[in-house]
Amino acid sequence: MKFGIVGAITFFIDTGIFYTLKLTILSPKPVTSKVIAVLAATIVSYVLNREWSFRTRGGRRPHHEATLYFVISGIAVGMYSAPLWISRYLLHLQTPFTSRLVEEIADFTSGQIIGLLVGMAFRWWAFRKWVFPAEQPDGRAAPRDRISTP
Questions:
Q1: Which domain of life is it from (predicted)?
Q2: What residue segments make up the domains of the chain, in order of their start?
Q3: Model-level pTM?
Q4: How many contiguous H segments (helices) and E segments (strands) does the chain have?
Q5: Contact, 62 vs 86, CB < 8 A?
């Protein structure tokens, strides 16, 4: 539930940045706009997931945890962006091949719905498995209250 709420918050961040960039300074580069938007949302997501969603899981040192989080999120950026890239450059759902309305619907569907679902499912699974596991790397149960270790 908490992961879903964090996802909703970061969806609005992602969507706001994506459309702000796509409709202004990066209008000819929608995939670049999407990558920048996902990166910004990922930073917010890390803080919220670490401090709230997975607070009682994990137990890794903060720098190891952050490294794993951002490596997995880097893979997810490709997963979030791939449907938009496919829609634009393989299916040619962009002007002049289609109308502006079709282009916008295709961009939203592929970038904000399909990409989001694929990336979020991967991140939820990977975060639970590797970043915030129920057990620590040495096999002990994760602490119930997170204590930062140097």
A1: Bacteria
A2: 2-131
A3: 0.69
A4: 5, 0
A5: no
